[in-house]
Structures are given as C-alpha cells and as structure tokens.
Design a protein that fits this description.
heterodimer; A: 114 residues; mainly alpha; two-stranded antiparallel ribbon; 4 helices; 2 strands; extended; B: 275 residues
C-alpha cells in the first residue's frame, strides 16, 4: 500500500499549523496589517472557485494538452452552487449535482467521461 | 470578558446542551463529507493510509479536497504546499478571534487546540463562550473533537475503503463530487462582494491560464490573482456581512435555526481587534 503522499501530508501540516497556532500562542498577530487579513479572507473563495472551474471546464488528453470542455458537469456544478446558496446546505447541493449527472448519463443525455 | 468568572450552573448547562445539539448536526455533516473525501481521494489514487494520514495530520477539509485535485492534476508538491498554506491561512482569523478567550489555558493545551482549530470548532466554541460571557474549555473540545475530528477521520476511512467496491464510479456521478464540493465550499465563504469578485476572477483566471499552460498553474494563478482583484472593490461597496473570525461568521457553520447571540454591549469581534 502506497505511503508516498504521507510526507506531503506532513508538509501540508507544517504550513497549516502556524496559521492555526499563531493567534493562540503568540501576541503579535494583532499587528498584522488589515490588508493582510482582507487578502486572506478572499483566498478561500478564489482558490476553491478556481479548482471547481478548472475541474469542469478544462480537460486534458493523454499528452497532457488542455482543452476547453463543455458538458453536463457545468449544469451539475451550477446546480450545486444554487442549492447550497439557497438552502445553506452543501450536502443537499452535492446530492443535486450527483443526481443530475447520474440521470443525464443513465438516459444518454450525457456521455460518461473518457 | 472575564475568564475567571464562574457562570451560573443553569446557564452553563444550557449552553453545553446547545453545543452538543449543534455538534451533533456538524458531526453528521462531517461524516458525510469525510466519506465523500475518502471517495474522492480513492478516485485520485490515494491509498487508504495516505487518505487517512491527510485527515489526521492536515485535518483541513477544504485543503484536503483541494489536495485531491492538485494531486490528480499533477501539481508539484511545492505548489500544493503553497496553495494549502494560502487556503488554510484563514485560520489566522479564527485563532486571533479565539485567543483572548483562551489566554489562561496552559500553553501545551493551546498548542493541541491549535491543530484541532477548524471552521466548525471555531463556530461552536466562540458561540459557546459568547453565550456564557466566559471561557468554558469543555465547549472547545466538544466542538473540535466530538463534532469534527472523530467523525471526519472515521468517515474518511470508510469512504476510501468502500470506494473501491464501487464498480463504475463515473456512472454514479462520483467524479462530479469534487468540483461540486469545491464550489459549494466556496459559496459558504461568500460573505460580501469582495468574496464574489475574488471567486469569479479566480475561476476565470484559473480556466484561462489552465488552457494556455496547464491546469495546475491555472489553479495557482486563480487562487493568487482572485483575492488581489477582490481587494480592489472599495470597502464601501463590499457589503461584507460576515467577516471570518466574527460571530456572524461563526453563525454560518451552525445548524439552520440556531444563532450565536452577541451580548448587546459586546462590539463585533473582528480578528485583530478581538475583545
């Protein structure tokens, strides 16, 4: 069983723990410039949206060449976004997204991914 | 705030019951998402040990989901580490907001608390402390361990083990879970126009750069450029409703129908200007 990614987990811990601990263990955090806090607050939405968009809009072939992809995945992800924002419940959003994809693929409206 | 004040026994019991009820809802959610994370990790080629190690060592849901995507897209480890650090940097805001409540907790316990600090632990504990007006460490441990750490790790293990039993994952829409979870988690962080702009620009830049270079570079570009553009939205137009680290932010992670009450004489607790 592969353990190659465990060192990566340790590295991810090493960059995560300070942000969790600095405020609790040190007194200087109050001196961080306001713009720094503001930037940090915006990183989460930007990174997550970037991941989602690239995941559904960019496909790569066997050679790794990226291409623009249009498919039922767009509808599913947008439905998840709408349901999550409306009901404030991500699980419901995921159920909606998965349901759309399953039905579309089962009925032949959408092809299975390569 | 007076940490040495002992709250009335009835108030303490009532607030602890409230923490338990909220924790139960969050635990159910953590079970669901931990399972989905395990499935996604399996899809991306993680072994069970690797998936569980991520959940125990990193213990950060969004960063772990993102790491699944990074690994699947072939992003090099330095890039993964950089993006993880950026994505989890929001915890600075939580730790800054909680710090004044925990100054009398021994430093070793605070060091352990830090590893367990998540969106959910912050939400449950800050709400508990503010309801009581004093620190009750018990509330933090319930929020951090019972509601999140245990269910998240158990569900990760279940997902990564049972995921291998699903014969044709795409037929069941397993491949759509990851991007949907990402956009759903992003929606939970949209608390004003700056966040909306950062997310939209992050997505757009990510796709354009990914198409012209590679998906991995696109993700990094979107994650770095989006916030910078979001900061250009003037404060008066930002319409911020729940800055991270504030009670309003905590409220977003509690069960629907429950609310964190702020004492009327207690000003809003923005990180860096905590009580």
């Amino acid at each position: 069983m592969s353990v190659e990614l465990i060192p990566l987990a340790v590295l991810m811990f090493l960059v995560t723990y300070p942000s969790r601990a600095l405020g609790l263990l040190t007194p200087w955090l109050d001196r961080l410039p306001r713009v720094g806090f503001d930037y940090l607050q915006l990183v989460g939405p930007a990174v997550l949206a970037s991941l989602a968009a690239v995941s559904v809009m960019v496909a790569t072939d066997d050679a790794g060449t990226p291409s623009f992809h249009v498919g039922i995945e767009w509808v599913a992800v947008l439905a998840c976004l709408a349901v999550t924002a409306w009901r404030r419940n991500l699980l419901l959003g995921l159920i909606a997204a998965v349901g759309i994809v399953v039905i579309a693929r089962a009925t032949g409206l959408a092809a299975l991914p390569a | 705030m007076s940490q040495s004040t002992v709250p009335p026994a009835e108030a303490l019991a009532a607030s602890r019951r409230r923490v338990l009820v909220d924790a139960a809802g969050i635990a159910a959610s953590a079970l669901g998402f931990g399972f989905v994370y395990g499935l996604s990790a399996r899809e991306a080629g993680f072994s069970p040990i690797e998936a569980v190690a991520m959940s125990v060592i990193v213990f950060g849901g969004a960063a772990q989901f993102a790491a699944v995507g990074y690994v699947a897209s072939g992003l090099a480890w330095p890039g993964i580490v950089l993006l993880t650090g950026l994505l989890n940097a929001r915890h600075l805001l939580y730790s800054a907001a909680l710090a004044p409540w925990l100054t009398r907790v021994p430093i070793v316990r605070r060091a352990v608390m830090a590893h367990l600090l998540t969106d959910e632990a912050f939400a449950l504990s800050i709400g508990h402390f503010r309801r009581l007006g004093v620190t009750d460490e018990w509330g933090y441990w319930i929020g951090a361990i019972v509601s999140t750490f245990i269910p998240w790790n158990l569900a990760t293990l279940a997902g990564v083990l049972l995921g291998g039993q699903i014969p044709d994952p795409a037929r069941f829409g397993i491949d759509i879970i990851f991007p949907s979870a990402m956009i759903g988690l992003a929606a939970g962080l949209l608390t004003g126009r700056r966040e909306v702009v950062a997310a939209a620009v992050g997505a757009g830049v990510g796709v354009v750069v990914a198409l012209s270079t590679s998906p991995a570079i696109g993700i990094i570009a979107g994650g770095l450029v989006g916030p910078a553009v979001g900061l250009l939205v003037p404060t008066r137009f930002a319409a911020e409703t729940a800055p991270l680290g504030s009670p309003a932010s905590a409220d977003r992670f509690l069960m629907p129908g429950s609310h964190v009450q702020s004492p009327p004489d207690d000003p809003d607790t923005r990180a860096g200007a905590a009580p």
